[in-house]
Design brief:
Strand content: 15-25%
Number of helices: 8
Mean pLDDT: 83
Structural class: alpha/beta
Distance between the termini: 33 Å
Number of strands: 13
Largest sheet: 9 strands, mixed
Length: 274
């Protein structure tokens, strides 16, 4: 593919191994993500055009350079935020926009909730940042929005991509340059990259993932059932009458707790803006 660039470097391969490791804590994950993004940024920005500028040193006047075009960084919330600072350290004059998208867990389609972009996108080089290029739905939606706002020179930067996402992005936006560190095998049924590194946003910010919530839900069910069995087994005359009176209310309270956690499992990602 003409516009797909896989950045091959020993240090990048090493850092990807750390990021993939499920035992890497969020604090370490953020540091490594920052370092890996910096390594990629040198390759991604090597084709930026320059303008000649006269500069006066302490000894004489000489020729220097400045960037010809403005650069706009656009992270996809939330995970893309972890890639912004390394680029700003290299291009401190860059402006930053934000696009908020999340993926519907059932349809795997992107749902937008926030857009805030600088002006003059038509005169800028726009770099879209998202650690994972999975289905490609979110990035394609973001690029369509950027083009509607005038952007024409767009680069996408992701650490890990799946073939499905690459195919979708190159089909819908063949003019966009794609920079990745590795192309993984495939997506699973939930739209996660295999082998991948899990949910990048959860791992960057240390938030609870769906598997943890499901585990807590299963623990809650176990506790509730155990408590119910204890009530059913109690037949002592002293307590029998009291528990018979309370059992309907205990069951109702228990089901309300379970319903709350089921709702949380379904909507927890939609409630997180950052």
């Amino acid at each position: 593919m003409e516009n797909l660039f896989i950045i091959d470097h020993p240090l990048i391969k090493r850092d990807l191994t750390y990021l993939r490791d499920k035992n890497t804590p969020s604090s370490t994950f953020r540091v490594i993500l920052r370092r890996l993004t910096s390594l990629m940024a040198f390759e991604i920005t090597k084709d930026l055009e320059l303008l000649v500028k006269e500069v006066e040193t302490p000894l004489e006047v000489t020729q220097g350079y400045v960037l010809k075009s403005e650069v706009v960084l656009v992270p996809i919330l939330r995970a893309g935020l972890g890639m912004v600072d390394p680029f700003l350290e290299l291009i401190p004059e860059a402006r930053v926009g934000h696009i908020g998208l999340y993926r519907d867990e059932e349809t795997l389609k992107p749902v937008d909730y926030y857009f805030k972009l600088p002006k003059n996108l038509d005169k800028s080089i726009v770099i879209v940042l998202d650690p994972m290029l999975a289905t490609g739905g979110s990035i394609c939606a973001a690029i369509s929005y950027l083009k509607a706002k005038g952007a024409s020179r767009i680069k996408v930067v992701s650490l890990i991509a799946a073939p499905e996402g690459i195919n979708k992005l190159t089909t819908e936006h063949p003019d966009v340059q794609i920079y990745i560190a590795v192309l993984d095998r495939q997506l699973n049924q939930r739209g996660f990259i295999l082998p991948g590194l899990g949910d990048a946003g959860d791992r960057v910010f240390g938030t609870e993932n769906k598997n943890c919530i499901a585990k807590n839900y299963q623990n809650l069910i176990f506790i509730f059932k155990s408590f119910a069995r204890q009530i059913n087994c109690m037949s002592e005359p002293k307590w029998f009458f009291l528990f018979n009176k309370l059992k309907p209310y205990i069951w109702i309270a228990g089901f309300n707790i379970i319903f709350y956690h089921l709702t949380k499992m379904t909507n927890y990602k939609q409630n997180i803006l950052y």
